[in-house]
Amino acid sequence: MTGSRRAVVASAILAAAAAASGPLAAESFQGVVHYAVHSGDRSGATDVGYMTDGSTLRFDVAAQGMNVYALLDLRSGIMTSVMPAQKMYMSMNLGAERGGEGPAPSGPAPRIERTGRTETIAGHTCEHVVITPADGTPIDICGARDLGNFLSLDRVAGAPGGAGLAIPQGWEQVAATFEGGFFPLKIERIDGGKRETLIEATRVERKQLDPALFTVPPGFREMDLGGAAPPRR
After folding, report:
1. Cα–Cα distance between 137 and 11 in angstroms, integer?
2. pTM, whole model, 2 decimals?
3. What is the C-alpha separation between 25 and 166, in angstroms, rounded?
4. Residue 77 pLDDT > 90, yes or no?
């Protein structure tokens, strides 16, 4: 995915997260949502599974015959990439990468247009909401109400050593626009009247999640370019 596409997706996810942080927001979804993430170069889509326990996100990625997953601890800002086949992992402190400042500033809040148009995706009805960031590139997010919250930022904001994932200043109206949850099932970029699908849900599974899914398995070794690391216990 190119840098511009990553920026569009990041803006869309931040808007969805802010929407899920309102005072009347529903509980977070429990289960797995499978997404097709399109690369934009017609090379096909990458399958990504989304899970969360409320403080950690897990993304399972299946691409080019390799299965890996990433854990993002929303309290610390640490991203851990796990490679089960190699029984190895590597971690990165996203806040430290920016000098301990936490995530990059999001900029001015976007303009929001609720279209009233709905669609059924992966068996769930979602409403199309057009979000236009400050850079002027409109994003259409089709968000479901019956799946609760994609991510509620107010659950982790202000946590000790947190990653600074509070609702950005000026984005309060994004949270106030939605009530009862907002879970993106499709994200499209609108460019000159043409639509390009970036992400679309393909299957939704409601189920209880094993807490072990959000940890590095025992015995996995941390990748260390300077030498072998001891096994994780």
Report:
1. 10
2. 0.74
3. 15
4. no
